[in-house]
Design brief:
Distance between the termini: 33 Å
CATH architecture: Orthogonal Bundle
Oligomer: single chain
Strand content: under 5%
Shape: globular
Helix content: over 70%
Number of strands: 0
Radius of gyration: 22 Å
Structural class: mainly alpha
CATH class: Mainly Alpha
Number of helices: 12
Order of helices and strands: HHHHHHHHHHHH
């Protein structure tokens, strides 16, 4: 019997091609419009290397900070039910939906000398405006929700009965977390850190308000585009694409369990 064509599956395939084309076409055009010589010349410039390194450095610190304080909180949110939990989850997601310039202005209001937080930091000798700590603060603000949500979802997928068995055998809650829960969630922890890192390294709008200088890579790209045009800014953008693509390849390699796909 002749099988009927599955028009719906054909439609989903067409949508997939449209989405991939929408994402890849501008990126492929930019990459192939940049020759190898200009890439080499660009990366040989001291200010380019400094801005890319600062982006990597600040984004890495944002992911480390998210790991240190976000992991315990993600575990708490995954295991506890309490009044107002949905509100707390919405607050965690706020940095994702707030316009980036608004984030920058909000943080500038807090770390400025006219607010008590800014006064304390100033007395401690910590300068946030136009500094690397200020950049790290911004990148942590925008990247942490991605880490918390990724890790929280994984913690929720781990059966609580495993932890109850451990506790019934006399292990403390901390020992249970370190020996049972965390080893089962480590892939998601790494994935969350990479997601946080990737979101942080792409930030522009909030950073440019807190710290135009020292320049991270997205700010340098903007300055070069405004001052000299597309051809001068494009090689730096291509280098940032290469770095980001490398991190997402690493993300896929880390998050795919061994043996899957064989």
């Amino acid at each position: 019997m002749r099988q009927k064509k599955d028009w719906f599956m054909l439609f989903t395939l067409i949508c997939g091609f449209l989405i991939l084309g929408f994402i890849l076409l501008p990126l492929i055009e930019m990459v192939f419009s940049t020759n190898i010589t200009s890439l080499k010349d660009t990366i040989s410039e001291k200010d380019v290397r400094a801005s890319i390194w600062l982006s990597i450095y600040a984004s890495t610190w944002a992911s480390i900070i998210s790991f240190l304080i976000g992991t315990p909180f993600a575990y708490f949110m995954a295991r506890k039910q309490f009044a107002g939990k949905r509100l707390v989850e919405s607050i965690i997601d706020l940095p994702i939906v707030i316009p980036h310039t608004v984030v920058g202005i909000a943080l500038l209001s807090v770390v400025g000398k006219n607010f008590w937080v800014g006064k304390i930091l100033y007395q401690l000798g910590i300068r946030m405006i136009g500094s690397v700590p200020g950049i790290i603060t911004v990148l942590t603000f925008v990247g942490m929700p991605f880490y918390i949500n990724t890790v929280k979802d994984r913690f929720e997928g781990i059966p609580p009965r495993l932890e109850k068995v451990s506790r019934s055998l006399g292990a403390s809650s901390l020992a249970t977390f370190l020996r049972i829960t965390f080893p089962l969630a480590w892939r998601s922890v790494i994935a969350g850190m990479i997601m946080c890192w990737a979101r942080a390294i792409s930030e522009f709008g909030a950073v440019v308000i807190i710290a135009y200088h020292p320049m991270i890579a997205p700010v340098l790209i903007y300055e070069r585009f405004e001052s000299f045009g597309l051809n001068y800014s494009r090689p730096v953008a291509v280098w940032l694409i290469i770095i980001s693509l490398s991190m997402f390849i690493l993300l896929r390699l880390v998050t795919i369990p061994r043996g899957k796909g064989k």
